Amino acid sequence: MCGIVGLFLKKDELRPQLGDMLTDMLITMTDRGPDSAGIAIYGEETEGMVKITVQSDTPEEAFAELDGALTSAIHSPVSMKVIDTHAVLTVADSVEAKAIEVLEEKGLRIMGSGQTMEIYKEVGLPKNVASRFGLRDMGGSHGIGHTRMATESAVTTMGAHPFSTADDQCLVHNGSLSNHNQMRRKLAKKGVFTRSENDTEVGAAYISSRIADGATLGEALEGTIEDLDGFFTFVTGTKDGFGVVRDPIACKPAVMAETDDYVAFASEYRAFADLPGIDGARVWEPEPATVYFWER
Amino acid sequence: MSISLDMAQTELREVNTTLQAAAKAQANEDYVIENPRGSHAVACGLDGPVSVTVKGSTGYYCAGMNKDAEVTVEGSAGPGVAENMMSGVVTIEGDASQYAGATGHGGLLNIKGNASSRCGISMKGIDIVVHGNIGHMSAFMAQKGNLVVLGDAGDALGDSLYEACLFVRGDVKSLGADCIEKELRPEHIEVLADLLAKAGADAKPEEFKRYGSARTLYNFNIDNADAY
After folding, report:
1. Which SUPFAM superfamilies does the entry mention (chain B) (predicted)?
2. Domain boundaries in chain A?
3. pLDDT tens digits, residue range A237-248?
4. Which fold has domain A47-115?
5. Which among A255, A270, A283 has the least Cβ separation from residue B37?
6. Which entry of A7, A13, A63, B72 is 20 to 30 Å from B93 by CA?
7. Total domain count, chain B
8. What is the pLDDT of residue A151?
9. Strand extents, DSSP E, chain A
10. The pTM is what?
11. What is the pLDDT of residues B20-49, one digit of tens each?
12. Is position B228 within any domain?
């Protein structure tokens, strides 16, 4: 069991409230996943720049002078924002690959990167994770969150969702994949590598790899129905929106709500209870083996 | 005069204890539950005559194990609504999520919207009327009772069916193993007319098709011995 929440705002004036709305949704899903929590938030972008979110278990040490060290290593300006165990480093997109290489060499864990996406995830109760990162105060156009009850890999930061396997792309998952080791090997042969032992990361890598090969988000999500075996309700985030797909058996719950202001996703209706205008919203259960997505 | 319980102020356990005590007291009281906010197990385990109206949507297992009580949800219901219901009436004004009415022994589950997958799975005597559509694997291993669907049915309707009767007015995407269409005879029209009237459904019994068990899975077929 795990909990998933997602929120896509249709109106720009609501952007400052995104974190607040998502935090309530996330905390409501605590009893579906009390061991870890995470959120991918799509916020501001700066032309030509990319944000790299990294994590360290020893942030004081690891993040001290990190921006300066990275600037020297990549010969390009770096700005850094530290939030608890995470740091977001903004660099020119031309030096992104080099910057990630340097950061990994320093033993930092890469949570994700992209023009607008930042990822924050940790072990602990969702309310504690949310307060450590100040999720409530974060703004943005859309975001997805996950509360984890681990089944397929250990309870660690790297095992928490969301998983990001390409710029501005991330995936959260309720369920378990049964052919993830086989798919991991297939992807590795194509040069697509994962960072953890987790099954969901393989799902994320599969989707990213399909998109890199030219598929649309819709086609990549369609592909999960054929190529991934197991139980899943997936919610995937991209720079422009988010998509939802459930396996054909569809035993993992999912509910969606739409108003003129937002599209919301959750594992259970109760995550919607505090959303403005929910009483007048169109609420429905996404069909099995059917891809849904919203893009701006 | 109805008694109001507000779940914004009252814990779920207190709400259910109050309702269960009212049911046991056989006092025929009317209760209104405000602010259910998708809570789990609202109004479950009621085993006497009490009327409950839930003002909003509920989560997992609403009105489970219902006996004699009347429960109305003025919203949608999460997975497993009216699971293992024994008697009484459960009405959902909106949609019902997966396995609505699972293993139900009796009573009427009236779903005004759609029901998703596995509606009436292993039903054992309950009557279920769905005014909209139902999802895949509905009435899987259904043993007894009637499932009436005014809209369409998803894949594998009535897979491994026993003696439950299935009536569908719209299209059936596919039938499950051992489920076949059967003749709609006068005695079935009588049952349907009664259920449609009880559910307040605007449909004519003659518009439905009946599906039931071909009964080919009841006995072991020696020709399949090699398969084991």
Report:
1. Alpha subunit of glutamate synthase, C-terminal domain (SSF69336)
2. 3-44+137-295, 47-115
3. 999 989 999 999
4. Alpha-Beta Plaits (3.30.70)
5. A270
6. A7
7. 1
8. 85
9. 3-9, 36-42, 49-55, 79-83, 86-92, 109-114, 117-123, 142-148, 163-166, 169-177, 230-237, 241-246, 255-258, 262-266, 282-284, 292-295
10. 0.94
11. 999 999 989 999 999 999 999 999 999 999
12. no
